[in-house]
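Hi,

I'm pasting everything inline rather than attaching a file, because the server keeps stripping attachments. The sequence lines come first, and each chain or strand is labelled.
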Amino acid sequence: MADKVRSLNAALEIVADGCHVALGGFAITRCVMPAVHHLARAGRRRLTVSQTIAGLDTDVLVAAGCVSKLIYAGGSLDRFGSLYAVSEAVSHGEVETEEYSSLAMTLRFHSGALNLPFIPCRSLLGSDLIPPLLAAGTVHVQPDPFTGRPTLLLAPLRPDVAILHVDTADRDGNATLAGPRWTTHETAFAARHVILLCEEVVDQVPPDQALIPGSVVAAVVELPCAAHPTAVAGRYDYDRAHLEAYTALARQGPAGMRTYLERYVLSVPDHSAYLALAREDAAR
Amino acid sequence: MNSWSGGEMLAVAAARLVRDDDAVLVGLGLPQVAVALARRTHAPNARLLLELGVFDPRPAGEAMGIADPRMWTGSRAYGGMLDVLGYMLQGGLISLGVLGALQVDRYGSINSSLVIEADGRRRRFRGSGGGNDVASSAGRVLVVVRHESRKFKAAVDFVTSPGRRVAGSTRAAVGLGTVGTTAVVTDRALIEITDDGAVLAAVHPGEDVDRVIEDTPMPLLLPNGEPTVNPSPSVEELELIRGSLDPLGWYTT
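And the predicted assembly:
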């Protein structure tokens, strides 16, 4: 069995400027925070980010100026707030978006994983989401060859790199994930290079619980509390105070975001230092 | 308990439209409170699903959203979006979708993406998520909104999720296979959506029909005869909302 356990820095060397990176978070759960913090510190630029429902990981990466294009089905921080950095960047033309529905994103990853030329989908028809996607060339509406009815076809999605959060993984990358798994599975098979951030490296995962097989995994990074301040079901809750502090700053616009990034990302060497800082805040 | 908030009445009126044999996909907030209320009263067998891959949860406590693990408590099965939005919803197994909206129009089309301000500026909101999928493929679609003038439009600023008619076409003509929005429930009225447009089917207790029409800036048809008056919330319904479904009043006050 291959040993794919790497440091975060080593695992992320593959992410170059201009890369298409799929991120594994969903709003306020399983966001891949240490990875986006590292990419922000490394000053990566012009990344394309794909994520079914964008969350805190994408918002922070956009705030840090690393992203030029976002492929998603919308997103938020649930009741904590909107993706303020994304809204700000999109409204100023700094980030281009391709906006789909959740199922359309799921099927784009699924189709990419299957190496299909396209996949039909019964969503998006008749909506204003379609015209910009027709212009981008990622959807077509044409008659179903069997019935002649108008049918939507989606282009497949093959991210260069996927960064996904899982609970446990063995050293080969066979990984488990408790709770709902949105598009984690499809994304892992669609991406050309999969990096797992796991809470715990174990000797062996029960094979019938392995959601992602090591066959498609390139690197495993062990990072306890990797999703902080977002939640991981059965392990830890979101950090309410931290998320509230984030949204309070992000709502203020670029100056507020700068304050957050300086304090929690750019002046912090690594994830354990970030966690220490967050714990210090909590103790106050 | 002879008084209740608009949000409580909204939750009660929406809950009454959930059937015992429904499989329901919901967005966060009032839709979720309404379905939970239905399951605790007349529709104990209604199944609740969440798009990220949650089957039959019994949400515990006040959840911050569908991504909050509190929402998944008591689930009977976990899966992914392909299971819920693909196999279940697009597969035709979801009989009811309950969605919120920034704006809704006379045909029940929903905008949850952006609002165009008077100065032409676009304010962006959370986008489709699974909303467009639900509006495209669920058997019936219920839209729940607060009865604020800005929420009703003859035509929404942006069609995130199509209703009964879109850009002058029928759903079938654009390739959609389900009927789409069947009703809009607000804290003042029940508006049924038909292929001919919006019908003011009922108002909530204490509401004046003419005032409701005045405060609904989109074309409203009247049913044969007067709109009926919805029954008041029962003591049981109010106790359930206040005691366990929305104890902090996040969604219904």
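The two ends of chain A are 46 Å apart (CA to CA).

If the labels don't parse on your end, tell me and I'll reformat.
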